[in-house]
Amino acid sequence: MSKYRRKRSLDRIVQTRRSTNILFVGIEGGSRTSSKEAKYLDMFHGFNKNVQVRVYPCDEHKSAPLHVLDHLKNKLKEEILQEGDEAWLVIDRDRYGSHLPEVARRCNDANVRLALSNPCFEYWLLLHLEDPQAHLQSCGDVKPVLSAALDRIDTSEGFESIYIDRFQTAVDRAERRDTASDRWPQQNGSRVYQLVKRIVRS
Length: 202
Prior knowledge:
This protein has 202 residues and is an alpha/beta fold. Helix content is 37%, strand content 15%. It has a five-stranded mixed beta sheet with strand order 2-1-3-4-5, sandwiched between helices. Helix 3 links the parallel strand 3 (86-92) and strand 4 (112-118). Helix 2 (65-76) runs parallel beside helix 3 (100-110) and helix 7 (167-177) crosses helix 8 (192-200). The longest helix has 13 residues, at 139-151. The protein is globular and about 50 Å long. Residues 1-8 have low confidence and may be disordered.
């Protein structure tokens, strides 16, 4: 059960409990088949019998964090919620750094947890493969490093086989980096590890 106080979006709690809790996750634009975030989170389908993950991609032309948050909040209005359900926002810092204080404030008001990657989600994927020491300023810096790391391993079995057996390594690396109490990582890092820990927690 969440230790955080329930606010607005998750205030509508039903009396009849289902057997699982649901994590409602808003992600940036793209279809479920094209979005790396959606493909990654879909890996955990059935991983924990006590948790379901429902992913809501925003329209690919409305991927700014505030649009993604509004889309998630609208989807939550259609759901029947129970105690223990959680809402998460998975976004990048890369292009929208100036928006983040407002995003963080609105997430707090709606009791939506912020899983931000700095500079982008690809950095979270990179942490599965290596622990980069050089600062990577933008997603344009991250992508060639990720591509080179993928070239060094067997990727013939596809996306899931690359990442599912390495997620704990990524969690450990991201958690070691996350030493500040800021609302999102100010340096290279990712709080997607917090969402993954929640998914796999018994």
